[in-house]
Predict the structure.
Amino acid sequence: MEPEDIMDDEEEITELEAIEISLDDINETLQKIVSVLEKIEQKLK
C-alpha cells in the first residue's frame, strides 16, 4: 500500500465522522422541533 493510500483512508474516515456528527445535530434539532409541536398540540386540545 502506498503512503498516499493510507492518507486517503484517514481523510475518508474523518469525512464520515463529520457527516455522522452533523446527522446527530440534525436529529437533535428535529427532536426539539417535535417536542415544541407536541406542546402546541396539547395546548390546542
In short: The chain has a mean pLDDT of 86. Helices lie at 3-44. The chain is about 95% helix and 0% strand. The radius of gyration is 20 Å.
